[in-house]
């Protein structure tokens, strides 16, 4: 199932039926929960770096109890991050669910230009 981003225009009582409204409420709540998880995990949480060179790790892991956040970067030939996949585990790393991907755009010299979120 594709990740559902927060949709501020829904539920819309003028156009959405009861089931649609409930689905939007559920999806929006999950998107808000994921946003809070990501923001909170960057606040004084244990971070570990795994695999590869410590300067160019395969992934980062932040943990608080059974709630874990894994960030897996994709790099170009120069080692610059071109995107990062954000995943959550609510059971201590036993299973993972993709949250979203941060895509980074660089110029020909490898300088950062912008970034945006996309579906995983």
Describe the structure.
With 120 residues, the chain is of the alpha+beta class. The chain has one domain. Helices cover 20% and strands 43% of the residues. It has one helix at residues 18-41, and strands at residues 46-53, 56-64, 67-75, 81-89, 97-106, 112-118. β3 (67-75) and β4 form a beta hairpin.
Keywords:
six-stranded antiparallel sheet; 1 helix; 120 residues; alpha+beta; single chain; 20% helix
The helix fraction, in percent, is: 10-25%
Rg over CA atoms: 17 Å
Indicate how many domains the architecture comprises.
Answer: 1
What topology, given as strand order, has the largest sheet?
1-2-3-4-5-6
Order of H and E elements: HEEEEEE
Overall strand count: 6
Mean pLDDT: 84
**Helix segment tally:** 1
General form? flat
- Would you identify the regions where 5 or more consecutive residues have pLDDT less than 50? none
What's the quaternary structure here? single chain
User: Ends: how far apart?
Assistant: 11 Å
Query: How much of the sequence is in beta strands?
Result: 35-45%
Largest sheet: 6 strands, antiparallel
Structural class: alpha+beta
Describe the secondary structure blueprint for this structure.
Elements: H1 18-41, E1 46-53, E2 56-64, E3 67-75, E4 81-89, E5 97-106, E6 112-118
Antiparallel strand pairs: 1-2, 2-3, 3-4, 4-5, 5-6
């Amino acid at each position: 199932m594709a990740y559902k981003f927060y949709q501020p225009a829904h539920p819309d009582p003028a156009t959405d039926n009861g089931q649609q409204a409930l689905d939007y409420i559920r999806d929006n709540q999950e998107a808000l929960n994921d946003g809070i998880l990501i923001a909170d995990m960057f606040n004084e949480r244990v971070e570990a770096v795994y695999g590869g060179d410590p300067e160019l790790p395969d992934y980062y892991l932040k943990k608080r109890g059974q709630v874990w956040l894994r960030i897996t970067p994709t790099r170009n030939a120069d080692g610059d991050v071109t995107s990062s996949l954000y995943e959550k585990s609510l059971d201590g790393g036993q299973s993972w669910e993709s949250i979203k991907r941060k895509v980074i755009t660089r110029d020909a010299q490898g300088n950062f230009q912008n970034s945006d979120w996309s579906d995983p």
